[in-house]
Amino acid sequence: MGNLIEVTSTLPILVFVVPVGFAALIFALGRVHTIFREWLALLGLVITLAISLAIAGQTLDGKLLFAWNRNLYADGLSALMEVLGSGIGIIIVIYSIRYLTHHQIGMPLNKWRHTYFYGLLVLFIGTLNWVCISNSLIFMWVSMEATTLSAAFLVTFYWQRQSIEAGYKYLLLVSVGVTLALLGCVLIYAAAIPLLPSENVLFLTELGKVAKLMPESVVLIACAMFVAGFGTKAGLIPFHAWLPDAHAEAPVPVSALLSGVVITIGAYALARTVTIFAPYYPAVVLFIAILASISMVIGIVMALVQDDLKRLLAYSSISQIAYVIEGLGLGTYLGIYGGLFHLVNHTLVKSLLFLCAGALMYATGSRKISELGVAFKKMPVTAFCFFVGALAIGGLPPFNCFMSKLTLFIALTERELLWAAIIGAGTGMVTVACFIWVTYRIFWTKPVAVTNPQITGKEVPFPMQVSMLVLAAGCILLGVFPNLLYPMLNAATTSILGILSAGG
Amino acid sequence: MATDLASGNLIITLYLLHFVFSLFTAELRNLRLSIAALVIQSLTLAGILATYASISGNPTLYWWSLTALITKVILIPYLLWLYVRQLPTAETRPWLSTGLSVAVMLILAVVFYSFLHTNVEFIAPTLQASMEPARSNLALSLTICTLGLWVLVVRKDAVKAVIGLVLLENGVHLSLVTLAPTLPETTILGIVSNVIITVWLLLYLAGRIYQTFGTTDTSILSELRH
Known about the structure:
The complex is a heterodimer of chains A (504) and B (226). Chain A is an all-alpha fold and 504 residues long. Helices cover 73% and strands 2% of the residues of chain A. The longest helix of chain A has 32 residues, at 161-192. Chain B has one domain. The interface between A and B is large, with 42 and 42 residues.
């Protein structure tokens, strides 16, 4: 762990500047022609993914990339988040090309609206990368708020009554939460001033060295602020009020982005802050384990009573992100590894399920489970993908979440939190039951009579199928060969532990 | 020594003014008057920053004060004014009646302040931060944060909620001057520009809510859903 090489590189700058530049281009040219909207967005994200992969390659070689006087920094964890973010971004753009222009779902093609959709989507990925490369505690906060802002108008995309309300609620609650986190950042900064040379005080990479020297009460209060603030972003109960509305009212590709990427940014920020303190303050670990267990249980119970498929998936996200945060809060190798593994898996599975929900809405014009009944034979691809997602999210073998949940349970028992592992396993069983029931109600109940001639009830267009199949393949592949991701997850985990062990 | 005493008194006066106008901002039911109170509240904030700059001889704090003057005294109230102009002057009737709300809020603020002031060691990261005037500064800033949260909890008006958020952020900003006076100016610019954009987007959405619903009452919004 101790032999990480520090190098100066322009890659961390590029991974932020390239998508922001493309977003600006889309805003400027998007109205001219469709090439400058979706295709430019696709090109921008593919280049961003390539840069992210280059960063990942460097970090796998045991390098830490610094830029701009150490203000920007990329390690294994940054690389993991960037690859994940731009990858999901590409899949979502491919899906949106046909989905957004569908008259039943959206509205007649509105060039400006589509321009800003793709522009904001690419801008969002840019701000996400900015979060992941910020080495300064305060700039990480600034960029977190930037991700919130760039996603706000994606939530309100339809500009209908409910979507405006959901967007307002999302922006207000997340901003309030994140402001509390700013107070936490300031407290930690103030506590670090006497302990570090002045040019290093703001740096996340330096905080690990002095984590155990700070006054305990200050660290505990700051951690509580971080959990409340970044927990709001992650959708942890009781800070989750924005999440179901925003997921339900946003267009499906944006819901997939919210569940797959936006809430994981909250988890990322917790990994960068609270995880640093977890090994020295057992109270923090216990606090997070309790909150996460409550979130898991209430999230899945709330999911059980929903008739709106998108709200159900949203509540399930609350439940699943709690596993991630519980793992990251443990501060041990296995805990962080399991948390990050589940973060990746949840992103794949939940994006997949949201895209399937979108396909069902595309075909039937409804998002109520009671009205969704679709014959299996009519939409085989969507049905197959939905099965994969439903079984995977329940944590059944041979799908991806099985391995990550297992890792988490072992990590919990290792830190003598057996009760939390039992709650986690119990929640897993309820999740299986919940999703099997949903699948049954959608694909095995009698299809509704089609009244609207525009509603096809047929399989969705090819690009949408491709997006879903890629994600489903990912779920199966990572389930059968969990070691595929080992190098990246290991690099991400050791980079957090590297910051920790710097304290000696 | 005499100047120390004078600036010490000046700071305490500014603290008091800041506190009183925070209460006005939170409690005035007329949105325009509430914004006017917010302007004075932010002005005292800029004044506190400038006074700290002269006491501590830290020239960066003058820049902070200037930034606060431009963003918090001018830009944010201007944005609020732009949107409030199109709305009815009185905010949506809150959950609590005026008298009760003022009483609860005063008790809350005073109890919270005195509790923090006596127990500031608990949150003060350094010895310096637990001595005057930092001690009062910390207690005051967290009290302002609480006022902001209180507004967010009990008010139903979409614009008033934005004012609550601004109060909360001003509270955090006030704590920066004693907790993190060495923060570079670029960081402060990053923080305030974020706040301005957030306020702007929120007000835009509140305006759209008013256009769609004919009201800025957020409790009606959730009733429509179910």
